Amino acid sequence: MSSVRERIKARLSNKIYPNPADPETAQKLADGIEQFRKSYLGKHFRWILSGAEFSSIGVYFETRDPNEPEISRRPKKQCVGFFPLFTWPHLCDLVNSHSENIRNAGRRFFEENPWPKRVELLETISRVVEERFWLLCAAKMYETGQSIAEAIGETDEEADFPLVNAMYLEEINRDLLIPNPSFAGDINGKCFYPHGVFLDVEPFNFPGAIPMDMATKALAMGNAVIMKPSPKSALCGYLVWESVKIAFERMGIDWRGVINYAPGGAEVVDAFLSNPYVSGFSFTGSSEVFREIRHKHRDLLRYGWHGKAELVYGSAETSGVNIFVVCEDAGPHHAANEYVKSFTGRSGQKCSSARIAFVAEKVLSVFLDSVCERLEQIRYGDVKQGANVGAMITYSDKEKLVKQIEALESVGTVDVYFEKEINQVSASDFPPTLLMCEGASDDEEDMRTVMNTEFFGPVSTVVPFNNLDEIEWKCKLSNFALTGSVFCRNLETLKRMMRVIPSGNLYWNRKCTGALVDTECFGGLRSASSPNGVKGKNALALFGSQQTFSGFYPKDADDEYKKAAQEVLTQGGINLSKQ
């Protein structure tokens, strides 16, 4: 049988997204929207722990379509979904009553399903996502305000992540140790053990792809998973959980306790991480929140496969103030088009969005004119009606943007250069906005503020430059290192910017968003991720521990005995190098 890599290489390398303008694609989307509205929209959803469902009594939180009219004018029936809201004592009781059961379910899952079967499970999850593709697109559009194109792109990633994690799982197990010398043993090998239970703290802005990546990495290594969607995207999180559950059922694997669903806010994170049976943690969100969580819960020792240890971090992608450099030998019109896509896509609510554009004075005027022209062409409004850019996820997110800009304006750090005129659709509307930083660009403290202000919306700042030394100095003021782009023809300039721009994903003559699964493994350098910028296949090993094995057969062992011993070791998960 071919390897997973061989089976998926063409899919990843020859990718073509469905065209929303194609009539067949439009019909598939319409069918997905109809299914979503009929089966999910406006429904009540429960927590699911250890295979049992739990709801609160008369108290719940809601998720809403950001592009619907103002909340005061919107009837309750137009809520996207309703989810349990537990009191702190009830929440702690639920967590403490089920955490050990969840850990035991994870152990059972690992022991009964060796890695080749888990590879098959992950491939099955991907097929389920493909089957539900247009339903999942519809959910992202309704609950998080993604445009049709953005929803298609993310749902495609949601199907790809289980496949590449299956590939990683197969490869780290087939990557054998060097056979040991005869004086060290007759036989040697390695295997991987899970950590136990992972809590996945999921983001609202990528509510399908990132939760799927978190979950399938943990499952690949044999862990149980507690999926905790953002309270802004709890229904999208439920659909991820449901896709995984369907795959378990198709494979005949007991899912109860192995995959769990617990939407909510910070209190849910605190409740689970205060329990010693939760041994691992994956997170996508702001750097500040991640540091707070890590500081608060770092000292509790937790049950692993054996013994106790501190909290393990599977993945933690955090904030980004991403650098976009346009040099004097770049094509300013092309760079402007890619720049606009880089800070307005998904209404700028991406950690990878372009936040700072260093633009050479020689092309500044042409670049700015082209950016403004492109911003004028953007269709703003309800994404369900075909708009490119829509409202912020919540009103409070809009208000935060307003206050951030006002704070920088009040001290003369930036000026608003361009603000797109929009028709108000909802209370969360925010126009694509271009800021200019000129007068304060030589003041170190002012520039430090600019280089570390993350606008989580369609806002970006242009900083003119005369030479590359200016860029290098200002980049050193940044605390972030997630994505970046450089537009240039001169190869020496490219070489220098590769060292200067702080980023885990660096792009040349293209936008700084839209990293593809595996071909452009997403993740920042150490300052924008944890642990230490590890990603791709290397990141999968963070979700488990490696055990090595070596030894001698008994002196009187015959071939039949040796074969039986090898079978026992293989069944126990050991990948033998020397037999």
TrEMBL record:
Q: Name one Pfam family in it.
A: Aldedh
**SUPFAM superfamilies tied to this protein:** ALDH-like
Where the record annotates domain Aldehyde dehydrogenase, the positions are 110-528
Q: Does the keyword NAD apply?
A: yes
Checking InterPro entries in the record gives:
Ald_DH/histidinol_DH, Ald_DH_C, Ald_DH_N, Aldehyde_DH_dom, Proline_metab_enzyme
Q: A Gene Ontology molecular-function term?
A: L-glutamate gamma-semialdehyde dehydrogenase activity
One GO CC term of this entry? cytoplasmic side of plasma membrane
Q: Which UniProt keywords apply?
A: NAD, Oxidoreductase
A biological-process GO annotation = L-proline catabolic process to L-glutamate
Q: What is the protein's given name? A: Aldehyde dehydrogenase domain-containing protein
Q: Which organism is it from?
A: Candidatus Niyogibacteria bacterium RIFCSPLOWO2_02_FULL_45_13
